[in-house]
Write a structure and sequence with these properties.
Distance between the termini: 33 Å
Protein name: ABC transporter ATP-binding protein
Radius of gyration: 18 Å
Keywords: ATP-binding, Nucleotide-binding, Transport
Bound molecules: adenosine-5'-triphosphate
Strand order of the largest sheet: 6-7-8-3-9-10
Helix content: 25-40%
Shape: globular
GO molecular function: ATP binding; ATP hydrolysis activity; transmembrane transporter activity
Organism: Xylanibacillus composti
Structural class: alpha/beta
Number of strands: 10
Order of helices and strands: EEEHEEHEHHHEHEHEE
Strand content: 25-35%
Length: about 230
């Protein structure tokens, strides 16, 4: 039977623990963290430096595996997937954004986004239109033939967002996406996130220290010493 429940979680972390190293050197970075992301939500994951935010984001993105517990993308347990299936999941279904933008410096904004679409396996006939659509969405179409060193930090991050959304993922995971930006540019980027959620129905989970972000998100999860201690609407 086809499910008619549209409110099934897109992503779920179930008692996720992560231990780095062994014996007396072991670091318990996560100790049973739990969170849920539903379709069309903008969610912040906050916490002090060292609380485990990046560790959890990497596990949610299937870049790393939990020591205990499980991560589900829809109904799929990432631990039950092959490495190849996890690669496919990251390339095709998820968009990743990093603090440092991670653009290829000798490719224009357009080429960076188009390159991302190639990696996602998008048909060559669709790539130009999808790349331009994404750049238009983030307000970078006018400047799409510029190289990253010719752009401001905000423009580079908006290009990185275009790259992360061009293949039309349902979920975007962003690690400290405004950390390198001044408050004005940070706000521009946040507005793009809000618009993506409202207009495209994408879900976004971002890690942050930035108090301004708390104002515009649907939920905040707070990590403290490897636990989710608070979830506020
Ligand atoms: N590869 C690793 N090996 C050993 N310990 C690690 C490793 N990566 C992270 N840690 C430790 O795990 C804990 C959580 O780190 P994590 O980077 O997830 O925190 P964070 O909340 O993202 O911090 P920040 O805000 O500073 O980026 C820290 O104590 C950190 O030192």
């Amino acid at each position: 039977m086809i499910s008619t429940n549209t409110n099934e979680p897109l992503l779920r972390a179930d008692k996720v623990s992560r231990i780095y190293g062994k014996g007396s050197q072991a670091v318990h970075a996560l100790k049973g963290a739990e969170l849920v992301v539903y379709p069309g939500q903008l969610i912040a994951l906050k916490g002090r430096s060292g609380s485990g935010k990046t560790t959890l984001l990497n596990i949610l993105a299937a870049l790393d595996q939990p020591s205990e517990g499980a991560v589900y993308h829809g109904t799929r347990d990432t631990a039950a997937m092959s490495e190849r299936q996890r690669n496919e999941l990251r390339r095709k279904e998820v968009g990743l954004i990093f603090q440092s933008f991670a653009l290829v410096p000798y490719m224009t904004a357009y080429e960076n986004v188009e390159f991302g679409l190639r990696i996602a396996g998008v048909d060559s006939k669709k790539r130009k239109a999808w790349a331009e659509q994404a750049l238009q969405f983030v307000g970078m179409k006018q400047r799409m033939h510029h190289l990253p060193p010719e752009m401001s930090g905000g423009e580079q991050q908006r290009t990185a967002i275009a790259r992360a959304i061009a293949h039309k993922p349902k979920l975007v995971l962003a690690d400290e996406p405004t950390a390198e930006l001044d408050s004005k540019m940070g706000l521009q980027v946040l507005k793009v996130f809000r618009d993506l959620v409202e207009q495209e129905g994408i879900s976004i989970l971002l890690t942050t220290h930035d108090p301004a972000i708390m104002e515009i998100v649907d939920h905040v999860y707070e990590l403290e010493d490897g636990f989710i201690v608070q979830k506020q609407a």
